[in-house]
Amino acid sequence: MPKMPDDCTSMTEVREGVDATDRELVSLLARRFGYMRAAARIKPNRDTVRDEKRKASVIAAAKAEAERVGIPADVIGDVWERLVEGSIAYEFDVWDETRA
Question: Domain Chorismate mutase spans what residues (predicted)?
Answer without folding.
Answer: 5-95
